[in-house]
Amino acid sequence: MKFSFAVKLGLLLVTVITTLTGAILFNSYSYSKNVTYDDFKASISAVTNTGAFVFNEEARDVIESLKQRLNQSLAGESNIELNDWVKTLKSHDVKPALSAATSNQLQDSLEFQTLVQLLRRVKAGGGKVVAPLRLLDQSDAGRQCSAGHNNPKVPVGSGFVARRVYLSVPIPGVDPSEAVMLLANSNYESEMGGDAKYPIGDTYRPKARFSSAFRDGELSISNWYVDEFDPCIKIMTAAIPIKNEDGKVIAVLGADYPILEFEQRVNELEADSWNLFGIAAAIAFIFTLVVGYWVVVPLTRLREGAVQLLRHNFSHRVNVTSTDEFGVLATTINKVSETLGDFTLNLERIVEERTVKLSAANEEVVQLNELLQRENAHLGAEVDSLIRLREKQLEHVEGKIDRGKYAINFRYLPTRSVGGDFWHLGQNRDDLIELCYGQVSGYGLETATTVLQLQALFKSLAGEPISSQLKNANDYLYSQQKVLTNPLFAKVLYITLSEDRMSVSGYGEPPIAFNNHQVEELASGFMSTPLGLDSKIEIGTEKRSFGNMSYLLFSAGFRQAVLKLHNVQDLDLTPQRFLELTGLREAGVDDLTARLRAEDWFENFEDDVSFILIERLVDL
């Protein structure tokens, strides 16, 4: 089933607003209910605590005396095991533990009547008007609820008036959580008639909160529950332990308070919340209608305009006069319709004009392609000549030369972009082998020209100190920055070889020393920057024994080509892993060169690929 945007938007707004309002009202209702409950509970606690002061020392002696007589009567009449008998009690059962004669005898005693009067004082003390000190009759004790089962009302004479107040005592040998006995009841022989059948000595299973007063010796107030004697009323029970001089709990004063007033407050809160929710829902509905008119009507007209455009009805106009986004969009659709209408009226003329222009453009493209083919052939010949010139200036290209105790392999695979790799092999005045190996940045004619000039410079400075050669090369490159279109820089490593030692100066890719058991990367801090970057440079030199190692010098293009050959993306390879990828230890330089040239991508590789392998000749 598909719904229009108006229906979806309306449902969304109503849902969001009503949900948000409902959540706020629910939280407010819950908070107010909890606060009211806590206030009601605190008031009950205060009233019951105050009433408990009626039981002074004399009253506690009366409790002890009547309790002792009750226990004696219980021991004399009981012919069953109390614990087994208690287990038969259900949660709302009240069973007499004494015979009617014994119960009536105890109820006629002065102690019992005294306690009843005290309990009625506690009960009457919860009202707003305190009764004068006199004997409270049965009607006073029973004046509580004028409600029927289906129409409960707040008790007559507002205030926290208990429905009943009573004293309970533990049964000897029985856990108070299992059962306790009634010692006295404020509603004894009341007009209500509800409690008249429960005289002294009646046994019942107490609420958990009530039994905790026996166990912990502290005030306890239960949650509300349905009164067992009058199901139309819910009550809360407050239990206060009555202790003797030794601090032992001798009885628990219980007071059952009807929560009709609390329920009325909660009902009023609930009614107010529902009223507010209804008002919020009505506002949400009205708001949805207003927003729907503002949004849905323009959208409907815009949709109709789009449908008419799809049907090629370019005379239709969208009627939205507002200046907001809908108005702008309507104006745009109307302009598009007008433009398309004009375009379709003159379509044949426009097509004919465009065809003529296109034919002329195609002829120009053909001529340009022919010109480009001629130019490419000419440029290709020039690039080939330039590469051949570069190779001619590089000594020992694709070859191996023995110098003294060393064999040096040179490999150079030029790029069609004309890169800047070069080297120069010479000998200084002390007959030490000098190898200059470098790469000039950039591509093309300027790079090739700079390389040739650097080669000529290093040849002319052969025999001079290495630091002097590098500084002269740096001065030349730095001076060219003002002349060249794009500034060029150079990485140059200078290697000096003697009988059994070598030194490395300059800046470039760190050489790798290796044999069958060991791989080592030489430090790269011989010089801090490339040549040509600054007018002043600092040149360092590392000297070391050549040992039984081979040394690999390589360009940045060589490194990229090896990684591409094995489809490796990690640029931070260890020297060991990079050497394994080259295969120089296992297969040699010719095999690596052949593998690179065999790749389809190598013909269009954008960097020069060059490397030099220096090995120690075996003494015969």
Summarize the structure.
Among the domains are: 53-258, PAS domain (Beta-Lactamase), CATH 3.30.450.20; 394-616, PPM-type phosphatase domain (Phosphatase 2c, domain 1, 4-Layer Sandwich), CATH 3.60.40. It contains 15 helices and 19 strands.
What does this structure look like?
With 620 residues, the chain is α+β, with helices and mostly antiparallel strands. Among the domains are: 206 residues, Beta-Lactamase (2-Layer Sandwich), CATH 3.30.450; 223 residues, Phosphatase 2c, domain 1 (4-Layer Sandwich), CATH 3.60.40.10. The protein contains 15 helices and 19 strands. The strands form three sheets. Strands 1, 2, 3, 4, 5, 6, 7 and 8 form an eight-stranded antiparallel β-sheet that branches. Strands 9-10-19-18-15-16 form a six-stranded antiparallel β-sheet. A hairpin with a 5-residue loop joins strand 7 and strand 8.
Number of helices: 15
Classify the helix fraction into a percent range.
40-55%
Form type: elongated
Largest sheet composition = 8 strands, antiparallel
Which short descriptors sum up this protein?
eight-stranded antiparallel beta sheet; six-stranded antiparallel beta sheet; 620 residues; alpha+beta; Beta-Lactamase; Phosphatase 2c, domain 1
Topology overview:
Blueprint: H1 5-52, H2 57-77, H3 82-87, E1 94-96, H4 100-107, H5 110-124, H6 138-142, E2 164-170, E3 180-185, E4 202-204, H7 208-216, E5 220-221, E6 225-226, E7 234-243, E8 249-258, H8 260-310, H9 325-345, H10 347-393, E9 399-403, E10 406-413, E11 421-427, E12 433-440, H11 445-460, H12 466-480, E13 490-497, E14 501-507, E15 512-514, E16 519-521, E17 541-545, E18 550-554, H13 556-565, H14 575-582, H15 589-598, E19 609-616
Antiparallel strand pairs: 1-4, 2-3, 2-8, 3-4, 5-7, 6-7, 7-8, 9-10, 10-19, 11-12, 12-13, 13-14, 14-17, 15-16, 15-18, 18-19
Helix pairs in contact: 1-8, 2-5, 8-9, 11-12
